[in-house]
Amino acid sequence: MESQLSSGKEWLEQLLQFMNLAAEVTTKEFETVETDLDSNWLNIKGDNLSPKQKQQLIGDKGVGIDAIQYLANTILNLNADPEAQNSFTIELDGYRVRRNQELAVLTQEAIDQARETGSEVEIPGLSSAERKQIHSLLQNSEDLQSESRGQEPDRRLVIQLRSPDS
């Protein structure tokens, strides 16, 4: 696992250098989020970045940091056997921690509303990674199910009561 983290750290540092951003990457001593997925966390330390640079890296609704994370997971697992592939989570300035807390609140509100009303509840404005995270959370629910509807960029997640035959 340590060599996987080292490879991820080195790759991310090189990417930041190509982007002319002076930022250090750490793998320890920062807050992470407990998830059901084993993930290697790579933290971009924002001490030497301006607020504008940080916002550009994160992007509108997290699209920038999601893209960097997608590249990391694709490139770092390119030639690995499926059993040896790893998941990498890219963090900057606590964005992932804050966003996961927001998602937990949004998801719980949608779950409560679906259970109380029996109606389906839409959660718009989620990235594909965020939708996947909520789908995973609800996959073992006995009374609820989720699905994605629509086309990007207007794709949304729907939470509804599980039909009796599913």
Explain the overall architecture.
This protein has 166 residues and is α+β, with helices and mostly antiparallel strands. It has 2 domains: 92 residues, GMP Synthetase, Chain A, domain 3 (2-Layer Sandwich), CATH 3.30.300; 62 residues, R3H-like domain (Ribosomal Protein S8, Chain: A, domain 1), CATH 3.30.1370. The strands form 2 sheets. It has a 3-stranded mixed β-sheet with strand order 1-2-3. A 3-stranded antiparallel β-sheet has the order 4-6-5, with helices on one face. The longest helix is centred in the middle third of the chain and has 23 residues. The protein is elongated, with a radius of gyration of 18 Å.
- What is the CATH fold-level name of the largest domain? GMP Synthetase, Chain A, domain 3
Task: Tell me the helix content.
Answer: 40-55%
- Quickly give the CATH architecture of the largest domain: 2-Layer Sandwich
The main sheet orders its strands as: 1-2-3
- The number of strands is 6
Shape: elongated
Keywords summarizing the entry:
3-stranded mixed beta sheet, single chain, alpha+beta, GMP Synthetase, Chain A, domain 3, 166 residues, 3-stranded antiparallel beta sheet, 44% helix, Ribosomal Protein S8, Chain: A, domain 1, 2 domains
What is shown here, in short?
With 166 residues, the chain is an alpha+beta fold. The chain has helices at residues 2-18, 51-58, 63-76, 95-117, 128-138; strands spanning 25-26, 40-44, 88-92, 121-123, 144-149, 156-161.
Describe the secondary structure blueprint for this structure:
Layout: H1 2-18, E1 25-26, E2 40-44, H2 51-58, H3 63-76, E3 88-92, H4 95-117, E4 121-123, H5 128-138, E5 144-149, E6 156-161
